[in-house]
From TrEMBL:
SUPFAM superfamilies: Bet v1-like
Taxonomic classification: Eukaryota, Viridiplantae, Streptophyta, Embryophyta, Tracheophyta
The name this protein goes by in its record: PCTP
Species of origin: Olea europaea subsp. europaea
START domain mapped to chain residues: 51-216
Molecular function per GO: lipid binding
Gene Ontology cellular component list: cytoplasm
Length: 242
């Protein structure tokens, strides 16, 4: 059973586990709906999404990367078809938090802070002082909720906790900059031939003083690392069939 030491600070909120569970459940409901809406807007990787605000940035090796303005930042979306890989096989690799550094080389630490329910957790993501400049010394305290919809679609919703709650659960380190991961996550749709369609949505504010163009470039690079995950999933699938 994962656990964390209680911590308080002058600008943090003390919150009961039951209240935290209720807050995260409510917040993640909205996140799930946003993810499903973004993934449902156009199932064709080769199509343009002009009508719903998505602008395609690149189509490379069957993977589409697009963006849509969301307030002062952009939301980025990556989609691809994984043939002969089931939705469950993909999620098993994508949710293997201990192995996340294999597909995100800038990630220094990813660990569970608290399990609220079987499918609802609080996680700390940390990027170190040797990461790329836009990642350097950033950390994120996020919830992760995993749901299976009635049609078998798997959804993993991830977003940062409010600063005061995050500080109460895990005080910020002196040299760390706490970024905000806005409504983000995975939608993995089951296909009849045992393949799956994967959609990854991310909207991120790395915080600290960064020009807006750097922040948006940071988002683009973040989505690009999903190519590493795609390759890892395919390699695991091949090894499993061997």
């Amino acid at each position: 059973m994962r656990s964390t030491s209680p911590a308080t600070c002058s600008r943090s909120w003390s919150i009961s586990e039951d209240s935290l569970r209720r807050y995260v459940f409510h917040a993640s409901e909205n996140c799930i709906q946003e993810l499903l809406s973004a993934s449902d807007s156009d199932r064709s990787v080769e199509s343009s999404n002009v009508n719903d605000g998505w602008k395609i940035l690149a189509i490379d090796n069957g993977m589409e990367i697009s963006k849509r303005r969301s307030g002062s930042l952009h939301t980025f979306r990556s989609r691809w078809l994984l043939k002969s890989v089931s939705a469950q096989q993909f999620i098993t690799v994508a949710n293997a938090i201990d192995a996340a550094k294999q597909w995100d080389p800038d990630l220094v630490e990813a660990r569970y802070i608290k399990d609220l329910e079987e499918n609802l957790s609080i996680i700390r993501l940390r990027f170190g002082d040797k990461s790329k400049p836009l990642f350097r010394n950033r950390e994120f305290i996020v919830y992760e909720r995993r749901e299976t919809m009635d049609d078998g679609t798997l959804v993993v919703a991830v977003a940062s906790l409010p600063k005061e709650i995050a500080d109460g659960l895990h005080p910020k380190q002196n040299n760390a900059i706490r970024g905000l991961l806005l409504q983000s996550g995975w939608v993995v749709e089951k296909l009849e031939d045992g393949s799956c369609m994967v959609t990854y949505i991310v909207q991120l504010d790395p915080a600290g003083w960064l020009p807006k163009c750097f922040v948006n470039r940071f988002n683009t690079k973040l989505v690009m690392i999903i190519e590493n995950l795609k390759n890892q999933v395919l390699a695991c699938s091949t090894n499993g069939d061997a």
